[in-house]
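Quick one: sequence plus S-adenosylmethionine SMILES, need structure tokens.
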Amino acid sequence: MADWSATQYLKFEDERTRPPRDLIAQIPLARAERVIDLGCGPGNSTELLVARYPDAEVIGLDSSPDMLRQARERLPKCAFIQADLASWTPPERTNLLFANASFQWLPDHQAVLRRMLQALPPGGVLAVQMPDNMNEPALALMINVAGRGPWAGNPALAAAARAALPRPETYYDLLEPLCARLDIWHTIYNHVMGGPGAIVEWFKGSALRPYLSALDPSMCDDFLAVYLEAIKQHYRARHDGRVLLPFPRVFIVAMR
Ligand SMILES: C[S@@+](CC[C@H](N)C(=O)[O-])C[C@H]1O[C@@H](n2cnc3c(N)ncnc32)[C@H](O)[C@@H]1O
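Reply:
Sure thing.
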């Protein structure tokens, strides 16, 4: 898949940085020695961790060169490492593993979550947020548009959709046996978007990436035009012409 674009992702920085703020607010650690931001992206979530734990060594980890370049520019005093979460193991003396909007991209994220939690010392915390939006129209319409039009039949497009997340009970059964304390909750944000086109721009920075990577480049604009028309049908303008993007997210704070 093509690399992430930090610039595209940060077009909605305020909205994208709200969930990590809400996640950090529930972490039951007054102090930390070492904090690692898993899937740190352009450093927006890492910056929040530095502010919350000013005395800790805060490290950002990501697999994307473009995201890491932006993160290093933003936080020159922090260490950033390029690694794949699927195979990476936390170093000793890590008190907090923080992952905002990254684990949903891992094919077997449940096994990786368990492995991360097992690597923490007693009292260590794994704090995770993932979009739980595969049943929202914006995501369902990607699958729908991929299945009609001149690109239909492209097997890479058919494989572009992420699997829906399991229910909270599944995370409870998976993680609780390893935990002294476990907190799971959902929040549905209603992001105010300038119009239907802004919804397309939002997802160009995230969930549309696998689709656009799978398409022949000459078809990307046509695909996006069909997707925009479909979005217009499902996200109606409010009284001021703007649209609301309901966005459910699941939060997990697990303490060893
Ligand atoms: C949606 S961004 C989240 C950025 C930031 N944490 C935030 O709060 O906005 C997801 C990040 O996860 C990273 N990522 C996805 N899969 C990964 C993997 N297997 N290993 C490491 N990083 C990964 C991506 O490169 C991307 O920067």
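The chain has a mean pLDDT of 96. The chain has eleven helices and seven strands.
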